[in-house]
């Protein structure tokens, strides 16, 4: 039995199934259906990478201050945004973002620390000395470079450069006319670093020698600028009645001998009755005064004064007045030198106060020759030098008789 359309009955073949009439639908899994699912979006890791790069730049450039702060803040911002993106699952490098934040914060903190350190230095004694030095430089690049060099040495706790030794003779002068009185001469600031003052011979010797180094560094630039010679004075410690053989006269606790340019000092006699905490300022005053006599010798003032004194009877009224002018000038020079050191290194307010309190005079010791001046005049001349910081104010030779009594 045949079915209509059966090929065996000669009927037509049915159309092939699968060419345009199939009931099976394709294409539902490619973008419109759910057969295969949507491909995942690529991770957005740019913020994390940027944060890491900026953090590294902040750390490397932190010494420039601006670089550390700018790149540090940017690293913090990009890093926090990158961390937030990672938490939302939009990126896979949350660790890089965190690393950028950490590096950026470190770089910024270093930069801020450098700013704080710079502010501290500029307001510290070394910074104040630097500013004064630059102000006095008049814009001279060489002088400014010297200011920078001295500032660096002062920050490191080092003394200024070792003074040169010059041997040209001091020009002939009268005591009241000398190159050291030039109005443009300013004593430089000095960081005077003194060792702890002990009681052994070695400790006292070290302290005395260190004080002379401080005074060298204060005076040699002044003398060099004035065209005057410079050499370090000798220092000799003694105990009891042991005067310098090159000089004659009364033995004191300390004295300067022009013949051999030696400061002789007896710290034992100077310091025995003084409490330990107040010894340094007192002995510094003594050394600065005797060094003032050394400046007089180097500049030719001593020789000019000696010529005048030889014309008058020994310890007569005129002779004594000339001696007082020398001694009061040495006290003024001491004030100039201590002004250069005050507030820096080992010379603080206590040492300055002790130096001032140690100043005496002829009127405090009855029976002594009036060859050093009254306590009031000694203090006034010291204060004059201390306030001005310039040797020009120390010309006692032009002062009225009452100021050198």
Question: What does the model show?
Answer:
It is a single chain. The chain is mainly alpha-helical and 405 residues long. The chain folds into 2 domains: 46-123; 167-242 and 251-404, no CATH class. It contains 12 helices and 3 strands; from the N terminus they run ααααααβββαααααα. Strands 1-3-2 form a 3-stranded mixed β-sheet, covered by helices on one side. β2 and β3 (262-265) form a beta hairpin. α3 crosses α4, α9 runs antiparallel to α10 (317-341) and α10 (317-341) packs parallel to α12 (375-388). The model is unreliable at 16-35 (pLDDT under 50).
Multimeric state? single chain
Q: From N to C, what is the helix and strand string?
A: HHHHHHEEEHHHHHH
Please indicate the percent range of residues in DSSP E strands (runs of 2 or more): under 5%
Number of domains: 2
Could you tell me how far the N terminus lies from the C terminus, measured between alpha carbons in angstroms? 163 Å
Poorly predicted residue ranges? 16-35
Q: How would you write the strand order of the largest sheet?
A: 1-3-2
Biggest sheet record: 3 strands, mixed
Shape: elongated
**Helix-strand category:** mainly alpha
Q: Rounded to an integer, what's the Rg over CA atoms?
A: 43 Å
Roughly what percent helix?
40-55%
Number of helices: 12
User: What's the total count of β strands?
Assistant: 3
Average pLDDT, rounded to a whole number, is 82
Topology (elements, then pairings):
Blueprint: H1 46-60, H2 66-87, H3 94-123, H4 125-137, H5 141-155, H6 201-225, E1 234-237, E2 254-257, E3 262-265, H7 267-271, H8 279-299, H9 301-309, H10 317-341, H11 349-357, H12 375-388
Parallel strand pairs: 1-3
Antiparallel strand pairs: 2-3
Helix pairs in contact: 1-2, 1-3, 2-3, 3-4, 4-5, 6-8, 6-10, 8-10, 8-11, 9-10, 10-12
């Amino acid at each position: 039995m045949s079915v209509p359309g059966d090929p065996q009955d000669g009927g037509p073949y049915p159309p092939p199934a699968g060419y345009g009439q199939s009931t099976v639908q394709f294409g539902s899994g490619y973008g419109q259906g759910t057969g295969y699912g949507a491909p995942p979006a690529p991770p957005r890791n740019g913020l994390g990478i940027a944060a890491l790069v900026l953090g590294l730049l902040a750390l490397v450039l932190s010494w420039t201050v601006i670089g550390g702060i700018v790149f540090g803040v940017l690293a913090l911002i990009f890093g926090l945004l990158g961390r937030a993106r990672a938490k939302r699952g939009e990126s896979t490098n949350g660790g890089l973002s965190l690393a950028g934040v950490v590096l950026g914060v470190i770089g910024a903190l270093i930069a801020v620390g450098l700013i704080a350190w710079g502010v501290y230095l500029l307001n510290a004694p070394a910074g104040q000395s630097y500013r004064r030095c630059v102000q006095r430089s008049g814009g001279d690049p060489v002088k400014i470079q010297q200011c920078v060099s001295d500032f660096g040495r002062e920050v490191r706790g080092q003394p200024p450069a070792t003074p040169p030794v010059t041997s040209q003779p001091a020009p002939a002068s009268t005591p009241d006319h000398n190159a050291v009185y030039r109005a443009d001469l300013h004593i430089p600031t000095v960081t005077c670093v003194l060792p702890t003052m002990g009681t052994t011979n070695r400790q006292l010797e070290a302290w005395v020698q260190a004080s002379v180094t401080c005074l060298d560094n204060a005076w040699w630039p002044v003398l060099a600028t004035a065209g005057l010679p410079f050499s370090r004075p000798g220092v000799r410690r003694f105990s009891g009645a042991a005067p310098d053989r090159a000089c004659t006269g009364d033995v004191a606790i300390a004295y300067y001998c022009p013949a051999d340019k030696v400061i002789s000092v007896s710290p034992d006699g100077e310091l025995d009755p003084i409490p330990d905490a107040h010894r340094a300022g007192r002995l510094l005053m003594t050394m600065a005064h005797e060094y003032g006599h050394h400046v007089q010798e180097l500049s030719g003032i001593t020789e000019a004064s000696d010529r005048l004194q030889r014309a008058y009877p020994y310890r007569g009224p005129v002779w004594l007045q000339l001696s007082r002018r020398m001694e009061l000038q040495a006290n003024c020079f001491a004030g100039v030198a201590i002004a250069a050191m005050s507030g820096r290194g080992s010379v603080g307010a206590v040492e300055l106060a002790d130096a001032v309190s140690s100043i005496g005079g002829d009127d405090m010791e009855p029976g002594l020759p009036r060859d050093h001046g009254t306590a009031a005049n000694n203090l006034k001349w010291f204060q004059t030098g201390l306030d001005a910081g310039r040797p020009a104010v120390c010309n006692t030779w032009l002062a009225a008789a009452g100021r050198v009594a």
